[in-house]
Design brief:
By secondary structure, this protein is mainly α. It has 2 domains: 65 residues; 165 residues, Four Helix Bundle (Hemerythrin (Met), subunit A). It has 8 helices and no strands.
Length: 243
Amino acid sequence: MRTRKFFALMAVVLAIPSMAFAVGSNGNGGSNGNGNSSAVTSTDATGAASGNANQAQNRARTNNPGTGAMTQAQIQSQTQEEVQLQDRIRESQPAYTPKNSQALARRNSVANAAEYLVRVAERTKNQGIGTQIRQIARTQSQNQDKIGQSIDKAEKRSVFAKFFIGANYEQLKVVKGTMEENRTQIQELQNLMASLDNEADQLEVANQIIVLQNQQLELREQLQNLTGGFSLFGWVNRWFNKY
């Protein structure tokens, strides 16, 4: 009897760790199950939020079908305006490159002034005034070409020829007439400046008027140098050309 009880007790003792291990395994399984359930729930929530965002975007596109097209149209319009501006600036630039260094510096100054004037003309709301400003800028550059060519021709006269018949008054007369046209246009530009609504544009035009006036003063001084010096019969040549 004692032997049977001993073996029965030993069986119970040996069975206890197996039961504990089984209970532990069931607990972990439950934990894993709960963890997997939580992960699935989080994923579902993220997917639902993303789906809602996509639906909102789709509704926005449906309600505003022209949004993308309008943006593209605006970009194309801005590009066309920039191309048009660059074309008008090129049209307003001098075409002749003088050989005389003073005339070349003057040509560059007039080219810059013409560009600024064209930009102002493009910005102004009153395109009637803008057209007039563009025309003045273009004429100033064309006149600069004419002046540069005439001065280059005048400077080709040799020292010997200048001593006997004087300077090339025929070409210098062209310069003087062109200078008078420039002076008249500068006055017109002053009147147009007063009609501009934007103060910044008025200031810009005023600055370019000063540049053009300074070029007139420098050109007058250059003419005096070209006509200076002694000449035997230069007075006859000057009278003949009514200079």
